[in-house]
Amino acid sequence: MHALSTCLRTALAGGVLASAVAIASPAAQAADNPASGKGPAAAAAAAPSLTEIAARLPKVGPQDVIKLAASQVGISENSAGGGTKFQEWYMTSPRARETLARDGGALEEYENAPWCDMFVSWVGQQLGIQPVMGSDAYTVEHARWFADHGRWGRTPKPGAVVFFSWSGSNKIGDIQHVGFVVRDNGDGTIRTVEGNTGNGAVEARTRPAWQVAGYGYPVYPAELAS
Which of 69, 83, 179, 225 lies 20 to 30 Å (CA to CA) from residue 6? Predict the structure, then answer.
């Protein structure tokens, strides 16, 4: 099985979501991040923002993500660290070719690679919201994708993508693991669903909040109309 610390980049790993419909330009990112200081004129001339993209996606909300993620609890890897449907899906996805082009390596290396972020990406793809959740095999670059789109913070929310650094660092470069927030327990811990944890399985866990480097907040289509 893969130790949790191996959710780091090895010979290959993922990065920001780069397909034409899925990624916003820097100006469009400003529309999702008012703190950027860039005005609406620049954003208007750019590609659609994540909010605009979300408006065209299935009306999925945080509880839909939590329900699907939780339904996968118990799925585990084989003795080589592979064999999950999450790795198999990622290897057949266009995103895998993009990350290979960026990071090098060979496609078959994903077969037994750490899969915590592949699990997160699979959930987004299954529900049709991958463009606003991001897709990756490398936790650090996935976190950067959220930060680049102004969707990064320190508040645990149901359905947020939670990024862990076991040392307690809040630096994106120190991130080692990823999962989904189920709830804030209100006692300094959070309840999560994670892939590639424990003995290399999807599990529900209770984690101390001090191990969280930060949270990525997908733009949930169901919340746009609320």
Answer: 69
**Amino acid sitting at position 214:** G
pTM: 0.83
Domain-wise residue ranges, the chain? 51-221
Q: Tell me which H or E stretch contains 152.
A: strand 152-153
CATH, domain range 51-221: 3.90.1720.10
83 three-class SS: coil
Judge residue 102's burial from the number of C-beta atoms within 10 Å of its C-beta, 0-12 exposed, 13-18 middle, 19 or more buried: middle
Work out the angle at residue 130's Cα, subtended by the Cα atoms of residues 128 and 133, and round it to the nearest 5 degrees.
125
What count of residues does the chain have?
226
Mean pLDDT by 10 residues, the chain (226 residues): 40 33 37 47 66 97 98 98 98 94 91 97 98 96 97 98 98 98 98 97 98 98 86
d(CA 86, CA 130): 14
